[in-house]
Amino acid sequence: MSYADISSQAQNIAAIIDNDTPIATADIPTSGSSRYSGVILFVDQAETGVLFGQTNIDVSFGTNTATGQVGDFVYAEQVTDEDADLPTVRGQLTLDDGIIDRTAGSGDAQIVGELNGTLTPSTEMFGINSGTTTSIATSFEAVLLEDSLLGLADGSATGGSTSVDIAGILVAEEN
């Protein structure tokens, strides 16, 4: 996957979100489910690179739960050729303990949980050496929109003796 591929996908989803309307907490359905597919991108505080992943989030309104996974990662440190394939990062993150907060106020997160997992980069990533098993541990929160989901992740990437604060943004459209 190239930077141009990811950029195009993110721009398409961002256009949907820009024209979408937030759902008031009182109007969140109480039955049924929805799947949201999109991308997440993580940066470190020093902004040395960007970790991109493909995401699927499943929301079950009847049980007030959210589950999901992120995979198919690539890492971009410096993009000189936007059409070239980016280095891959093996592994997966999962949305753990995801719940719908039906008491959320206006502007507050309606879905909260943790986005955690283990990745192994094929190149240096956020200052962590290539091939080093890297633990990703983040808190996750999101808001529901009529046709999409907008989320934030905040936490750390730890590989070997290196630990880096990271933050991510998730944009996904309802399937």
What do these coordinates show?
This protein has one helix and eight strands; from the N terminus they run αββββββββ. By secondary structure, the chain is mainly beta. It has an eight-stranded antiparallel beta barrel.
Keyword list:
Porin; 175 residues; 8-stranded antiparallel beta barrel; 8 strands; mainly beta
Summed up:
The chain is mainly beta and 175 residues long.
Strands, count: 8
- CATH architecture annotation name: Beta Barrel
Count of structural domains? 1
Low-confidence segments, ≥5 residues, pLDDT <50? none
Class from secondary-structure proportions? mainly beta
Using only C-alpha atoms, the radius of gyration works out to: 16 Å
Task: State the strand order across the main sheet.
Answer: 1-2-3-4-5-6-7-8
Largest sheet: number of strands, sense, barrel closure: 8 strands, antiparallel, barrel
Anisotropy-based shape: globular
Q: State the separation between the terminal residues, measured CA to CA.
A: 22 Å
Q: How many H/I helical runs?
A: 1
Range of strand content: over 45%
